[in-house]
Recover the amino acids of this structure.
């Protein structure tokens, strides 16, 4: 299973694309502005889109993508999302005012897309891969996702899993499920704001460096995997990475006894996610 980062920014600027990940060639996780870097041929191969929530930075490219390639497809694109997210997209995007309702165009029998309601905990199997909706805690109904490769295709027989938090504030339920997953190979987790904007992060139910540290402390002992930081605001990215670097250094120096100030008691492998990166899991 391959994961290609199309966009991982919390807002737009030159070189910054908002959230979207391509799983192999046919599954999108979110449809932010990063989708716009795909060719028409690449978009035509996308059969499934999994949306975390209805905020614009995660859905902005979906209506434009459907317009670009819908008429050339033989089957509708399946758009998986929470019922509340589908309702929001129907009411505010695909309403024949902001954008055509491609769930009924060119006809209800053969539309460009079909909405597929999911709930937290649901698992969708696509070509031997499993996409599971994970709990998220945000200002609107939201989920994260875990994508698992077919274990029979791997020599070790284990299901390599890619985990994405989606947009979320502190969320014990997320860690409870992640700690149960087999063979997590990579965690992508948001940190939208720096310490100076920690109050805004709290209000908007996002993470900042100190709350991220508290979240990572919930990873079960012995379950170590690379952690990639996503959804940083372009104006905050440098400061966030500096602060996360400080937390890493502090955790290394104070691992014994635990660093109770930052909530970190072990050293985690933190990386800044970048658009254009590809990972072979």
């Amino acid at each position: 299973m391959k994961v290609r980062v199309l966009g991982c920014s919390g807002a737009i600027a030159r070189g910054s694309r908002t959230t979207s990940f391509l799983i192999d060639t046919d599954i999108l996780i979110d449809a932010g502005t990063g989708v716009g870097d795909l060719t028409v041929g690449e978009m035509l191969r996308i059969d499934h889109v999994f949306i975390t929530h209805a905020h614009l930075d995660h859905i902005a490219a979906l209506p434009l993508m459907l317009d670009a390639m819908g008429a050339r497809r033989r089957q509708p694109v399946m758009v998986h999302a929470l019922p509340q997210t589908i309702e929001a997209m129907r009411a505010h995007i695909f309403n024949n005012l902001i954008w055509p309702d491609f769930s009924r165009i060119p006809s209800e029998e053969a539309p460009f897309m079909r909405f597929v309601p999911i709930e937290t905990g649901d698992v969708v199997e696509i070509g031997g891969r499993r996409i599971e909706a994970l709990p998220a805690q945000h200002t609107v109904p939201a989920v994260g996702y875990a994508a698992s490769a077919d274990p029979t295709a791997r020599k070790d027989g284990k299901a390599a899993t890619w985990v994405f938090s989606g947009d979320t504030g502190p969320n014990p339920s997320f860690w409870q499920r992640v700690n149960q997953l087999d063979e997590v190979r990579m965690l992508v987790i948001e940190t939208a704001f720096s310490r100076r904007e920690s109050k805004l992060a709290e209000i908007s139910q996002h993470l900042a460096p100190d709350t991220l540290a508290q979240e990572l402390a919930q990873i079960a002992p012995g379950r170590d995997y690379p952690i990639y930081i996503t959804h940083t605001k372009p104006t905050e990215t440098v400061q966030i990475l500096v602060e996360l670097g400080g937390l890493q250094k502090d955790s290394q120096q104070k691992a014994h006894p635990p660093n109770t100030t930052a909530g970190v008691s072990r050293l985690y492998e933190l990386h800044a996610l970048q658009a254009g990166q590809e990972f072979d899991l």
In short: The chain has one domain: 2-251+262-280.
